[in-house]
Amino acid sequence: MRDHRKLRAFELADDLVLTIYASTKGFPRDEQFGLTSQVRRATVSIASNIVEGCARNSEADFLHFLDMAYGSAREVEYQISLAHRLGYLSQDDFNSLNSKCEETAKVLNGLIRSLRK
């Protein structure tokens, strides 16, 4: 078993979750069960899949959960882009979130590629 807390990918994903929650507090109330919930769940899914993958005994299972985390990171990229285009995120907030999300995805992708070699 691996310790997820030692992975840079987890640290970035965990930080992204906290930032997304803070940034979505100002979303319109009518989005509470829509985009607000969806982007929060997708972001939590990134970190959660890393944690679950680390708890698995096989390399194949670990990779499977990292792949799911990577997919969720790409999903969040779209959702914050949509939120920005709908006017829910300022340009500065979008740039900051997008940068954090891209870095998380990049580190995850690097981890996945290194494990597949």
Short description:
This protein has 117 residues and is mainly α. The protein contains four helices and no strands.
CATH architect. name: Up-down Bundle
Q: What is the β-strand count? A: 0
Low-confidence stretches: none
- How would you sum up the major sheet? none
- Helical content class: over 70%
Question: Helix and strand layout, with pairings?
Answer:
Blueprint: H1 8-24, H2 35-55, H3 59-85, H4 91-116
Helix pairs in contact: 1-2, 1-4, 2-3, 3-4
Report on this model:
The chain is an all-alpha fold. The chain has one domain: Up-down Bundle (de novo design (two linked rop proteins)), CATH 1.20.1440. It is built from four helices and no strands. Helix 1 runs antiparallel to helix 2 and helix 2 (35-55) runs antiparallel to helix 3 (59-85). The radius of gyration is 14 Å and the shape is elongated. The two termini are 20 Å apart. The mean pLDDT is 97.
Which tags fit this structure?
mainly alpha, 117 residues, 0% strand, 4 helices, de novo design (two linked rop proteins)
